[in-house]
Structures are given as structure tokens and as C-alpha cells.
Design goal:
A hairpin with a 5-residue loop joins β9 and β10. With about 240 residues, the chain is mainly beta. The chain is globular. The strands form seven sheets. The chain has a five-stranded antiparallel beta sheet, with no helix packed on it. A five-stranded antiparallel beta sheet has the order 15-21-17-18-19, with no helix packed on it. The protein has four helices and 22 strands.
Amino acid sequence: MKHLILIFLFFAINLHSQTYQIKNHVVGSSATTVSNSDYNFRSTLGQPAIGKIQNVDNIIGSGFWYTIGKTADGMHIIYLNLGWNLISTYVEPEFAALEDIYSEIEGSTVIVKNNSGQIYYPEFDINDIGDWDVKQGYQVYMSSAETLTISGEKVAPETTEITLTTGWNMLAYLRDNAMDIEIALASLVADDKLVIAKDNMGNVFYPAFDINMIGDMLPGQGYQIYLISGATLTYPEN
């Protein structure tokens, strides 16, 4: 029986090696996230996995990868620093509940806040926010630096309208590449509705005084903006 198992395992590995190549240093020695340019593992390769662990293209289970039908076309990796972060994504999450989105880094996520002041507080099983809204930015406080991976469908920024209210808004950036904030928010400036925009570092874009300390808006970052009246924003296409 042992010989049959070994033959089967050798056959499985040989078969998959025709499609995939496991590179050096991709395998970890404990249940941590390990990655190279091709793969992102979230469990020790070669050891049994409880249920299944997957990214957009592959599933890992009991140590073996196999291709699945593609259900999403986007994966966004967001780097979170120790302390406060202001983030957003250009991907509509496949599983939108915050418990699902932060499941891999729940132990390091202290609190998440949205523009309405609602919170996700995993230590106490509090989720007033519910599901992730791709049009919003979120403030996240981390007890250690982590990587947040969001999988789902990439949004089309040029056809996704973001409704903004008078006063402060935490705004998502929906493009998958950088753009000068003066161009990205040009419609709000032209309508004389944007007073100021701020990033997570406290840099500001203050059009009335031709001040632009932010420069480019970046994928993964969220922004705080103050409007003198409600508006609708649509970003230029990618």
C-alpha cells in the first residue's frame, strides 16, 4: 500500500511539474505566508491543509496545487504598516464580509473604521461595517506590519461613480496605476467643490492655493477629502 501511495505522489508531482515550477525559497517551515513572483502560499507545502486555501488561479490542499476555473480577474496586495493606515482597493471582493477579508491577518488587525464611524473590531467580534464597500477608503490600525490580499473582480474606474457628501469623505482610489491627484480629481476642482485632500502621511492637496504635496494617487491608498457640497466622482480609465 505504501508503494502505491508513493507511486501516486510521484505521478502527481511529475504531472504538475509540466505546468508549474516551484522556485527556491517558496516553501515555509511553518504556517506563514511565503511567496515568490509566481505563487503565494499561506500554509506549509507538503502538510495537510484544513479544507482548501486558494488564490485567484490555484487551490492548495494537502500540499498539492491544481488549476481551477477562474472566478475572478483581480488580486490586490496591500501593504499595511504598524499603526494607522488609510487604504482602499480597485477590486470588488469576491467575499466582501470584513471577517473574510481580514481572516488571514485577524490577529494583527486591531480596528477598522469607515467614513460613517462604524467599526470592525475582531478581538471582540464586532462588525458594524458589514461588507467592504469598494468606493470607500478605510482607516486600519495594525499591531504589526502585514500584507492584505483582496481577490475579486477589478472595477472599471471610468464607469464606477462614487457619490460623495458635503464635508469629510474617505475616498477609494479605483485605478490600478498611479495618477497625479490634480488630474484624478480634476472634475471636483473644476466644479469648485474640493477644498482639501489628505493622504495617510498628512500630505495635502489644496487647489485654492496651488499646493500639491501628495503628487500621485496610488493604488491601495485611501484619501480623506473635504467638499463644500455633494458631488459624484468618476476616475479616468486605467
